[in-house]
TrEMBL record:
It is an enzyme of class 6 (ligase). HAMAP family: tRNA_Ile_lys_synt. This is tRNA(Ile)-lysidine synthase. It comes from Serpentinicella alkaliphila. GO terms for biological process: tRNA modification. PANTHER family: TRNA(ILE)-LYSIDINE SYNTHASE-RELATED. It holds the Pfam family ATP_bind_3. The lineage of its organism: Bacteria, Bacillati, Bacillota, Clostridia, Peptostreptococcales. InterPro entries: Lysidine-tRNA-synth_C, Phe-tRNA_synthase-like_B3/B4, Rossmann-like_a/b/a_fold, TilS/TtcA_N, tRNA_Ile_lys_synt, tRNA_Ile_lys_synt_N. The gene is tilS. Its main location: cytoplasm. ATP binds at S26, G27, G28, P29, D30, S31. The keyword Cell cycle does not apply. Residues 385-457 form the Lysidine-tRNA(Ile) synthetase C-terminal domain. One of its GO terms (molecular function) is ATP binding.
Length: 466
């Protein structure tokens, strides 16, 4: 296996002589294997290895034991180890994101902090071939384009993945041979998350009934698609530079004549490049957003616009397609829609849908912790349900607090940009705010032991694919 990893390092140019490498270590088999391999290879590559462990505080004493194990392991290898404890659940609540996403963001932020402190130029993480196959399958089931099916790259910026061509079985065998005794996170053995279900249920079923080599097949398919995608991306980037008329900090203008000459595949990529350059972030646009902009182009009406994620507005001005952030021009702020139970309503101003339904109280235990799905005590609803954006004087009683506060102060506390606040939907009972969608529901409408009727509200907003 060591030779196999060395081949990957050489082929993908992951490590150069003299590199300083931060190794992310959870304490599980994958990261422990990676740490041991790089420790073993440090003389050959003249590298300096550092360990980094973030305690997410998800699993109580088990999390503490993970940190202790990593500390002792690094001590045994004479590797400098950095350990940090973060209440990731609290971070997720404050930012209004999932536990998994909050954990990922905190980990990489921690790795960057250490990189700056020790002058490291690489960050090694332990994704393996099984992770690659599971990611491809997961994205396929959710729906994705060519780039999404290329899955996890061997390197991106500082990040390197030396084990991406190694199976989980090979990793476990390596740990056993070298008496590493890694920690086992029992939650990874339970089908409670989407990825876990694919790993524990779907993948074994496919291997047994359809293709025993499904992991290699998916990974090989990804490599083939990666080459095709790389070529198309390069051509699209050339076209993007040709049709870009103007770029400022808050505005990018493209030639509509130039866009209309492109193949549909190139059009989608050019639109994505524009949003990426504008906000400095990849994967901003989903399929539906791209189609919305293409529809705008097809209609070709000056002054018409579309609202995109991250406060981006796209509009037509004569022969130019203009991408800008909200603060760059005025837009109609106010919207309000009355809602009916057991219905689906489309909110044009934010290009999203909201679904309202009554459910049995027993069903809510199976509802995920998705920040866009919430349950309310329907017996406490006294007026017509509606969805709107903020109004002057709005107050809100956030779940878990002892009293109400100004909605403006609530937004300030969460550091929500002023330009984005008018696009945050509010589920209301008449004038009373039940839910600041994506952030916090009201204490006044929470489900209790006395609740007899449960209202489930789903804000149909898909997160961008990572």
């Amino acid at each position: 296996m060591i030779n196999k990893v060395k081949e990957t390092i050489f082929k993908e140019e992951l490590i150069q002589l003299g590199d300083k490498i931060i190794v992310g270590i959870s304490g599980g088999p994958d990261s422990v294997c990676l740490l041991h391999l790089l420790w073993y290879l440090q003389e050959e590559y003249k590298i300096t290895v550092y360990g980094a462990h973030l305690n997410h505080n998800f699993r109580g004493i088990e999390s503490q034991l993970d940190a202790h194990y990593v500390s002792k392991l690094c001590e045994e290898f004479n590797i400098i180890c950095f350990i940090k404890s973060v209440d990731v659940a609290q971070v997720a609540s404050i930012k209004g994101i999932s536990f998994e996403e909050a954990g990922r963001l905190q980990r990489y932020q921690f790795f960057e902090e250490i990189s700056e402190k020790v002058g490291a130029n690489k960050i090694a993480v332990a994704h393996n071939l099984n992770d690659q196959a599971e990611t491809i399958l997961m994205r396929f089931l959710r729906g994705t384009g060519l780039e999404g099916l290329t899955a996890i790259p061997y390197n991106r910026g500082k990040i390197i993945r030396p084990l991406l061509n190694i199976t989980r079985a090979e990793i476990e065998e390596y740990c056993s041979i070298n008496n590493l005794s890694p920690r086992i996170d029992k939650t990874n053995l339970e089908p409670i998350y989407h990825r876990n279900k694919i790993r524990l249920e779907l993948m074994p079923y496919l291997m047994e009934n359809y293709n025993p080599n499904i992991i290699d097949t998916l990974a090989r398919t990804s490599e083939i698609l990666k080459k095709d995608n790389s070529y198309i991306e390069a051509k699209a980037r050339e076209m993007y530079k040709e049709i870009k008329l103007r770029e400022t900090e808050n505005r990018i203008e493209l030639s509509i004549v130039g866009i209309n000459k492109l193949h549909e595949s190139l059009k989608a990529r050019v639109l994505r490049f524009a949003t990426e350059d504008l906000v400095g972030k990849k994967d901003v646009l989903e399929y539906k957003h791209i189609n919305s902009v293409l529809e705008l182009l097809e209609n070709g009406q000056t002054a018409k616009k579309r609202t995109l994620p991250m406060g981006i507005i796209v509009r037509i001005s004569y022969e130019r397609l203009i991408f800008s952030v909200i603060s760059d021009f005025e837009y109609d702020k106010d919207f309000i829609y009355e809602l009916q139970v057991n219905s689906l309503e489309y909110i044009e101003e934010i290009d999203q849908e909201i679904r309202i339904s009554l459910v049995d109280k027993q069903e809510i235990n199976d509802i995920s912790r998705d920040k866009y799905i919430k349950c309310f005590d329907y017996d406490k609803v006294n007026n017509r349900l509606n969805i709107r954006n903020r109004r002057d004087g709005d107050r809100f009683w956030p779940l878990g607090l002892t009293g109400s506060k100004k909605l403006k102060d609530f937004f300030i506390d969460l550091k929500i940009d002023r330009e984005e606040r008018d696009l945050v939907p509010l589920l209301c009972d008449g004038d009373e705010i039940m839910w600041v969608v994506g952030y916090r529901m009201s204490e006044a409408y929470k489900v209790s032991s006395e609740t007899t009727r449960v209202l489930m509200v789903e804000f149909c907003k898909e997160e961008p694919i990572k």
